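Notebook entry, structure prediction.
Reason for the run: the old model in the group folder had no record of what sequence produced it. Starting over properly, with the input documented here first.
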Amino acid sequence: MTQAALIEQLKTLVEPGKVLTDAASLEAYGKDWTKHFAPAPSAIVFPKSIEQVQAIVRWANQHQVALVPSGGRTGLSAAAVAANGEVVVSFDYMNQILELNEFDRTARCQAGVVTKQLQLAAEEKGLYYPVDFASSGSSQVGGNIGTNAGGIKVIRYGMTRNWVAGMKVVTGAGEILELNKDLIKNATGYDLRQLFIGAEGTLGFVVEATMRLERTPKNLTAMVLGTADFDAVMPVLHAFQSKLDLTAFEFFSDKALAKVLGRGDVPAPFETECPFYALLEFEAISEDIANEALAIFEHCVEQGWVLDGVMSQSEQQLHNLWKLREYISETISHWTPYKNDISVTVSKVPAFLKDIDAIVEANYPDFEVVWFGHIGDGNLHLNILKPDAMDKDEFFAKCATVNKWVFETVERYNGSISAEHGVGMTKRDYLGYSRSPAEIACMKAVKAVFDPNGIMNPGKIFAV
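New structure, fully documented this time:
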């Protein structure tokens, strides 16, 4: 059957106008936030029900057509890129919160529900969905589950995995499975739900998920602290964490701050210039807790760890301090950064960052390097900025040559080559630095069970 005939047949599976093949749509829906691979899908299909998703998957199996899931397309690993004529399955029209149960503290969502939409719906009921990141206004629940999204609150609330009570999936074989049925306790063998979390759509499509909710935190208060050097960041973390229950602990370099301040959207936190900054957040539910935070700050200054700092006194100031951290990714995107999203256990972070920094400085003396990340959970974001005059492909090629040394260091520290961005196509060739050959063989065997014909997001996590 010709491609044109296949597309005509695909159109019969969904509502009229829900299959697009125009160049603009193929370009927009065939990519995510990565710029490494050119999008080249054959069509974009927009199902509106689980049954339509199932019909699409069965059609793809029958005709050996590869499928790529598409959510908010905010990923940074090319897991949602269709570069080889695949059909993109977009969940934009499966975007309803089907039920919000205040007693169980759960929200049952279709895969296309936007993260911010879920957060606001929970807020209306006096509840809280704590998984949060800069792309919350466009990322979707299905994509968050597919990549086990983390973000800025992991130190307190954990990853997306911690908040999935249950889900419905359409497997690569076209079967509908209901996993865990939203239970808190369920000791009935393998928890297949966990296999689909972080699987990047390679086993099947998450079509519905029940997400757990939490009580709303009270009087969130942020502090931005300027440190004398990076070695001071970890004792500051320990000092605050030993006395307060932190909801976040982030860090960024002076270069990251300079890029954000250069936009003119937010003022500098204080006049003192520092090489590194820490942003921490906690619930100041009493005056005693606020005073405790100030006492810890004074202790850190006395120890020479902190040079200056500020604590939010209003909700607006809280938001402004967070902008210093949350605007970094969007701001530096102008320079087409080469990103590494790496992690180690928290205690190893200082030595690990020094080793990685030495590799970067030795090999990229003329490139600008921006560090930031979720230091409270051991996750560092290394961003190498492309010089304006350099061709993109040449720049990526130069950066890729050093990956071997960076990932060898990650392996030496028993770390991860991808802390929260996933593997996709950008990290698939480096998977062996974090996973053993036996583990990779087991992962491939699991994929074969759920996706026997290999149609689900092929070429992601491991090469075809």
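Summary: Residues 256 and 422 are 23 Å apart (CA to CA).
The old model has been moved to the deprecated folder.
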